[in-house]
Amino acid sequence: MNNTIGHAIALTLFGESHGEEIGAVIDGLAPGMPVDPDAVAAALARRRPKDALSTGRREPDLFRMVSGIKDGKTTGTPLAILIPNTAAHSEDYESGAFLPRPSHADYAAFCKYHGYEDRRGGGHFSGRLTAPLVAAGAILSPALAAGGVKIYAHIASLAGIEDDAFSEHTAVLDKLKDGDFPVLSEAAGEEMKEAIRAAAKDGDSVGGVVEVLVTGLPAGLGEPWFDTVEGELSKILFSVPAVKGVEFGDGFALAGMRGSEANDPFAVKDGKVVTLTNRNGGINGGITNGMPLCFSVAIKPTPSIFREQKTVNPIAKTEEVLTLHGRHDPAIVHRAVPVIEAVCAIVLSDFIARRYGTDALAGGRFAQMAKSEGCL
Amino acid sequence: MNNTIGHAIALTLFGESHGEEIGAVIDGLAPGMPVDPDAVAAALARRRPKDALSTGRREPDLFRMVSGIKDGKTTGTPLAILIPNTAAHSEDYESGAFLPRPSHADYAAFCKYHGYEDRRGGGHFSGRLTAPLVAAGAILSPALAAGGVKIYAHIASLAGIEDDAFSEHTAVLDKLKDGDFPVLSEAAGEEMKEAIRAAAKDGDSVGGVVEVLVTGLPAGLGEPWFDTVEGELSKILFSVPAVKGVEFGDGFALAGMRGSEANDPFAVKDGKVVTLTNRNGGINGGITNGMPLCFSVAIKPTPSIFREQKTVNPIAKTEEVLTLHGRHDPAIVHRAVPVIEAVCAIVLSDFIARRYGTDALAGGRFAQMAKSEGCL
Amino acid sequence: MNNTIGHAIALTLFGESHGEEIGAVIDGLAPGMPVDPDAVAAALARRRPKDALSTGRREPDLFRMVSGIKDGKTTGTPLAILIPNTAAHSEDYESGAFLPRPSHADYAAFCKYHGYEDRRGGGHFSGRLTAPLVAAGAILSPALAAGGVKIYAHIASLAGIEDDAFSEHTAVLDKLKDGDFPVLSEAAGEEMKEAIRAAAKDGDSVGGVVEVLVTGLPAGLGEPWFDTVEGELSKILFSVPAVKGVEFGDGFALAGMRGSEANDPFAVKDGKVVTLTNRNGGINGGITNGMPLCFSVAIKPTPSIFREQKTVNPIAKTEEVLTLHGRHDPAIVHRAVPVIEAVCAIVLSDFIARRYGTDALAGGRFAQMAKSEGCL
Amino acid sequence: MNNTIGHAIALTLFGESHGEEIGAVIDGLAPGMPVDPDAVAAALARRRPKDALSTGRREPDLFRMVSGIKDGKTTGTPLAILIPNTAAHSEDYESGAFLPRPSHADYAAFCKYHGYEDRRGGGHFSGRLTAPLVAAGAILSPALAAGGVKIYAHIASLAGIEDDAFSEHTAVLDKLKDGDFPVLSEAAGEEMKEAIRAAAKDGDSVGGVVEVLVTGLPAGLGEPWFDTVEGELSKILFSVPAVKGVEFGDGFALAGMRGSEANDPFAVKDGKVVTLTNRNGGINGGITNGMPLCFSVAIKPTPSIFREQKTVNPIAKTEEVLTLHGRHDPAIVHRAVPVIEAVCAIVLSDFIARRYGTDALAGGRFAQMAKSEGCL
């Protein structure tokens, strides 16, 4: 099914950038999970463009949860979350001939939908569609946390500037959720912001890499063929606009190592099986091994730039020159961080519900089950 | 569903390395597709270990197609392909305590299956399970080719040694299917083989990157959320043993570029819309844009090495030292090439059947439909 | 996935009777299908309670289609339809202890959702949830009709009173959509209404059988194992509240016949293969055979009656007596007719899109494809 | 996916009546479930034709379980079961023009597969394909029984002759598995057999109704929209050859009752909530309510009869007369009983695994979980 993901917990996404509302239906939630609207609002605020680093489009994301909730708790029936579009400037998109933006979805969408697509603001392909994903993540993350599962993410690199490596100091990790530009090194963060401003000044854009760390996951999640943890995560990650690469653990760097370097030796620590290194990112054979899950996601530079670009009129089959107007991000890497965290929460919740059953996500129940079978 | 992939065309995989038979059921094939058993045998032969570069396990892959075929053509009902296991040396695995191999699936599988798993030869996690995938690819590839879709793959790098870049000369590309070690540069290929032999001599292993190019695909395949071409491919690729990263077009390198570099300008060539570069690998917004599909897959070094490794007895919770015996590949990169080609054929066939219907894959019918709507 | 049906065309349902909004997301619609909001409104009006035969709850069904539509046509992306709940009298439900209504979903829901369910008005189990299904049917039916597929339904029996048998006179059939009480015999209809009024007067309710006829379907739709036309239809029909039986063609009556009576002999008529009788309801082996599709659906009497009933307090485990207040239908058979028609449109559209591809439902394209292969 | 059913536990079916092998892949089985090959053989023996009441085709059903099993227990990976076809008399089918048998799948299959289908013995549509279902049922039933869930079925009527109603005496119920002709009244059984013999003598066939009773099911299984217990069961039941109707509880008879008759009053018995009658068959709102699950399945008379029948040559479009040869059952009602029991075991196991997780089916674990939450 095209716009639905998940198995035990399923999410269906709908909407267009300049349509009336966007939203998601989340199905398979355990009954009795507390849902805090303020936490959802806070997560949406993290994703929202806010300063000179982002698009001028400003929307309050006045979401409504119209089903599946009663007295602040999930009922166990589908939870629909709706977000109205209020700040759309459609006139930016509607004048003149259709000139697809290079490396944006415009032309591919035209081929797929034969011109019936809603092109305004990228339509269904807009990054705006990630808002309902973030909302879903905000609903699921507390349930994961109740069972001890925590998701951290930072901008590992942007425009070639690298952040510090993930630390094991939880205090440092928790800090990542505070601001709107999650980095471990403040200095690197400042340099990155400068690079974004410099690109914006040139009418250009930059990309980067987002790195994720998940702690507290039970071992034994995932299916070897074909629902691996790596595969399910990457499948959804690649539908996040601008994602062009996903790697787990040391990823592509592993390809240049020898086995003796790449293998993570086992040890026993405090009565638990651990690995002394974690080059495989907490996954072997597609299954979690109890070590932290680590992966990186490549985000290409925003394709909407303000420099003159070669394009075509695909109907008249003429070559044209495109100069964009409107509001566009010079970088979306920092805004992608909460989206990627949300995707991670959605996919991991599904794996947990598949393994431990419908009710597993309420009250950290899955963690008790995992402990009792020696997987946590 | 765990072991089933695909939507319009679905493949279900089963078997263990040392079980009685492994196999796959392919469902949703158009009726009337010719199936050449010799082509299937040839594809299996490409995957099979054959010389000093590979494991000593030698099997003839005496496959049988026991349903869904009549008079050399698909009937349209499920095609089951069975491959008996004949050369399993189970005794290599059955003696002594359970000592999981570092970075292999052994320990994660133990957590998942509580010790009931069949561990011999990696069981259900074995690379041997890729044989039915290769067979499925061999059944689907001729149907894709009948519509003009061709899949090429080479070892882009191995142990840090790089092959030439993909050429646009079809003659060169067609050559890739000939041998068992698909590279564009013979010299690079020899260097790579030498690196494998050197690693083998050290009881060690090497990894590499496989790069794929698909030509002749209709524009407009894929779904933005969430069944992108990138997402569906990567999902299955990550279940191929040892895959730890997937990137499309320039992938992670795009993260370091500016938009003005990363964007592929449009042009009109022979009355068709094309892009002047293809840094996005033929996909925008998750949808094919009519340019060649390009992606790269990171293969880690085989985790089974013959050097002493630290491991544990996960039941007794004791630290142990492991020295492997048995037959293991010092590199599986070259053997992964036909597997990745097969995964590509399976995923693309499914997208075509979803878009153009049940019968689309017979007789290149999808290509006529795509042409008539201007997508090819 | 719990609340999602369909394969090529998928529908996800959400909402509770007394929640903020109910709705559905319809995914996989061909781009370019005209959508007439007036036709949707008219279909919802047919389902809506309107007179003394129905519940006192009166709602205008002010639906909104908030995505997937542009300029009156589908875009090909998910179409979300939202219907606010405006006339809920929750106070009818909220006073006092929880006393489940006999043969309603209340108690089963309590077991499933552990008391977190929204019980007001039946919550997610309410017949009100059929409104989005009817809306979806109103969007799909014109596309089916454009390809010559027409769906007719009548009250075959109610409280034991039987309507005339389906006629082959199209004029008579078209008349069925006109009123709110679709019968072929006006006299039978009057008698049925009288039976409803009599039951209402007794604080009781009645049930009935709805019979459906679909003409113009291509032969060859359906899958033998397991997506038969019968199976997919019945799966969705059984989720319509109060449905307790489904039979195809002569159904249960066939069980008492001999093969020589039950078999439908073949003949050639106007160059087409037909059957001389249609006791199998247009389906053989789960696949359409080109004859009209016929099936019947048993609707039990509304469980909400105003007579004293024995119930329990499932928390205190005490036996109690229940006397209902609020607004309830003495019969829902007539209101079930447009719902069953809608389910039929949804399921058949999905089969058509699977067989003939994504675009098949636009402009009657599937009918041309079916004709060209001799299936229509 | 066409030939795959189930969610947490999925079954994929393949094969043709006269192909090389038929079989099924069962995925999602809990690790550690004991599998008794003798029980599988015994179940297949119950389905197998054995005397004058059945087809002359005699096959030993030499099944092999080639994966997913180790040391007599499931491993948790896909279990593939293969059954070779050994007694096919293909020559009965291959002579002369294609003359579809009335009310058999032949003609519908021809429309669907364009003549590429394997027609011999009904091909993929053959009742022979129910053998792997029966095998799957034999694997799952002991796991259900370990948690206290028992499935009983009898021939409720055949050729109009009615068996006694289901008794609550377990001793009587257990007797039903003993012979090959499961009835509660021996006298009725003898009459039924006589009716079969009489029909056979006339070259004709008879149908009947199979009734099923399931005890010990936890309350709270099923999903209201759209994965109701009724809907999932009926979906699979309708793919069993010759099934033309399914009803739950009193089914179609409920349509003629008033609510005050049809409703099942609640009571408390031994501290448990029960209903005093069970006209709704243990299901309300699509969800189990803790009472026995009851349903009936209409089986039409075997369409293969030996009397002259009108048919057509669908290629030449000529009217023809058909006289069948070969081996055909004068009734399949009794042979359908173990098939329907198996379908029931497959569907209920899936619901249990969805609710209680991957491991729930091993060792009756689901029953403990259900008890601890008050659902059993």
Describe this structure in words.
Four copies of one chain form a homotetramer. The first copy, chain A, has helices at 37-47, 91-94, 106-113, 130-146, 170-175, 186-201, 229-237, 259-262, 333-356, 365-372; strands at residues 4-5, 10-14, 21-27, 64-65, 69-70, 73-74, 79-84, 150-158, 161-162, 208-215, 243-248, 266-269, 272-275, 283-284, 287-288, 293-299, 309-313, 318-322. Chain A has 376 residues and is α+β, with helices and mostly antiparallel strands. In chain A, the strands form six sheets. A five-stranded antiparallel β-sheet of chain A has the order 1-2-3-7-4, covered by helices on one side. A five-stranded antiparallel β-sheet of chain A has the order 9-8-10-16-11. A two-stranded antiparallel sheet of chain A has the order 5-6. Chain A is globular and about 65 Å long. The model of chain A has no long low-confidence stretch (mean pLDDT 93). Chains in contact: A-B, A-C, A-D, B-C, B-D, C-D. The interface between A and B is large, with 115 and 115 residues. β11 of chain C pairs antiparallel with β11 of chain D.
The most extensive contact between chains is: A-B, 115 and 115 residues
What oligomeric arrangement do these chains adopt?
homotetramer
Low-confidence stretches of chain A: none
Structural class label of chain A: alpha+beta
Helix/strand order of chain A: EEEHEEEEHHHEEHHEHEHEEEEEEEHH
Record the strand order, biggest sheet of chain A: 1-2-3-7-4
Quickly describe the structure.
4 copies of one chain form a homotetramer. Chain A is an alpha+beta fold and 376 residues long.
